[in-house]
């Protein structure tokens, strides 16, 4: 739960920063820019030479085929600042990805207005918090965080847009599993018979359906359906919901049975 709390807090703080601030270029240092035009400027050395060459080829290919421009800049002690805008001719079809390990989050984005028609602002907040957070960078490395973020954007452009970032992180799946189990327990307790001869309490099950339906459907299944085509997480959560429902049903019968018959004096 602390991990999920930190995740949600990170999204909130990033949203505040993202809405109130665009990429700020406080300095102007064109001397750091190479003479030859390249879509990748790796001043902080976050990528290996092989990774850099492959990324350059993929980004150039994407721009030629679709018109979308993705540029990557990593910086540490020195930064080109505002000079990067003229160097890359950034416009509404441009996405500038900035990696700076000095901050709390590795990644920053300067998003062209044309992107928002295909990927809303919350998409970029989620993209930043998922791949730029310190835990992800520590586990996958700065290169992995950068390449995974860029790949997610490319996947969404190929799909014609995304409302959420593709893929299901481990911590997010654990959250969906927990809510599925909780929803099953609520459904099981509400379905327990309240009258003699009754097998299932339909009335209570329907009465509490908004609660267990929200826990299982909205929080347990929807994040999986919107982020991945993998069926296995859906099956796991479905089985967890059913098992928790049976457990809740049996447990509630045990509890209610204590109060069914008044004690005879």
Provide a brief overview of the structure.
The chain is 57% helix and 8% strand. The chain is α/β, with parallel strands linked by helices. It has a four-stranded mixed β-sheet with strand order 1-2-3-4.
Which sheet architecture does the biggest sheet show? 4 strands, mixed
Order of helices and strands: HEHEHEEHHHHHH
In the sheet with the most strands, the strands line up as: 1-2-3-4
* Overall helicity: 55-70%
- CATH class membership of the largest domain: Alpha Beta
Q: Work out the number of β strands.
A: 4
Account of the protein in words:
The chain is an alpha/beta fold and 265 residues long. It has two domains: 2-159, Roll (Diaminopimelate Epimerase, Chain A, domain 1), CATH 3.10.310.50; 170-258. 57% of the residues lie in helices and 8% in strands. The chain has nine helices and four strands, in the order αβαβαββαααααα. It has helices at 2-20, 49-66, 83-88, 121-131, 134-159, 170-191, 202-207, 209-227, 232-256; strands at residues 40-42, 69-74, 94-99, 107-111. The protein has a four-stranded mixed sheet. The protein starts with a helix and ends in a 9-residue tail after the last helix.
Topology:
Blueprint: H1 2-20, E1 40-42, H2 49-66, E2 69-74, H3 83-88, E3 94-99, E4 107-111, H4 121-131, H5 134-159, H6 170-191, H7 202-207, H8 209-227, H9 232-256
Helix pairs in contact: 1-4, 4-5, 6-8, 6-9, 8-9
Looking at this protein, list some descriptive labels.
single chain; 265 residues; 4-stranded mixed beta sheet
């Amino acid at each position: 739960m602390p991990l999920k709390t930190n995740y949600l807090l990170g999204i909130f703080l990033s949203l505040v920063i993202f809405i109130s601030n665009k990429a700020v270029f406080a300095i102007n240092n064109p001397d750091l820019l190479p003479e030859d035009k390249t879509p990748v400027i790796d001043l902080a050395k976050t990528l290996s030479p092989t990774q850099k060459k492959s990324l350059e080829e993929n980004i150039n290919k994407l721009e030629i085929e679709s018109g979308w421009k993705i540029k990557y800049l990593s910086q540490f002690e020195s930064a080109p600042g505002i000079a990067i805008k003229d160097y890359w001719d950034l416009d509404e079809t441009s996405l500038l990805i900035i990696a700076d390990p000095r901050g709390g989050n590795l990644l920053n984005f300067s998003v062209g207005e044309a992107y928002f028609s295909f990927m809303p602002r919350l998409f970029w907040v989620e993209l930043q918090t998922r791949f730029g957070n310190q835990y992800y960078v520590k586990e996958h490395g700065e290169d992995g965080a950068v390449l995974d973020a860029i790949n997610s954007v490319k996947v969404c452009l190929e799909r014609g847009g995304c409302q959420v970032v593709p893929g299901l992180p481990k911590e997010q799946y654990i959250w969906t599993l927990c809510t599925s189990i909780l929803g099953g327990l609520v459904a099981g307790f509400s379905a327990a018979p309240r009258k003699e001869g009754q097998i299932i309490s339909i009335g209570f099950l329907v009465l509490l359906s908004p609660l267990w339906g929200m826990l299982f459907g909205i929080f347990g299944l929807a994040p999986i359906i919107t982020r991945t085509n993998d069926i296995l997480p859906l099956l796991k959560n479905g089985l967890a919901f059913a098992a928790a429902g049976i457990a809740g049903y049996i447990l509630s019968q045990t509890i209610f049975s204590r109060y069914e018959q008044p004690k005879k004096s």
